[in-house]
Amino acid sequence: ASLMCLMQRDGSVGVAAPRLVFPTGEVQSSRRRFPSMPVLLAESTAWQNLPAVRGALRSYYCHDRPHSHCQAIDWAVGACLLVRRQALEEAGAMDESYFMYSEEVDLQRRLRQLGWQVVYEPSATVVHHESMSADQSLPGKVAEFNRAKVTYAAKHLGAMQARILRYDLLASLGLELAKESAKLAVGHKPDLRRSRIALYRQVLRGGLRPRE
Known about the structure:
Blueprint: H1 2-9, E1 13-21, E2 31-32, H2 37-42, H3 51-60, E3 71-73, E4 75-76, E5 82-83, H4 85-91, H5 103-113, E6 117-127, H6 138-156, H7 159-185, H8 190-206
Parallel strand pairs: 1-6
Antiparallel strand pairs: 1-5, 2-4, 3-6
Helix pairs in contact: 6-7, 6-8, 7-8
């Protein structure tokens, strides 16, 4: 009801997003700014904790703004969104070049370019069991998450940036593979290490090439 009321009050709102919470009641991070190249290079990679990118990631996750206030944002995580029909008809549906990830940021970027607002309304709360579907196929999750980032970069930042990003992500996955191999060599949780090594090898073999 809160999201519908927001839409009715303000005709410029194309997307209304609720506050997402875990089953425990803890607030999930769901507000975002559009990803810059540094964010795409670092997010969820081996380099995400480097001091040089912390500021960019904090800004990307909107950590500088309280999650308790209604606010206009660049885009919201797509677990639950109310989208105005007129806005969707103008922007077109989600791009089928994406599979499982990044389709919502692409759609909301197109909506913003058309002048529609994306608004986060925390008075509406939705319990989100995060990644329950994706976790059933972990290699697929890792591959599609990274492949979607490359697809987004190619569409919105350019072919050269997408190529750089693809090599960056492959290097990060290769480093994670090396770490797991080193841990296996010293006998640390061998079953877990073998499982992760198999995962990274499978993803690296795919090369994060675009889906056909």
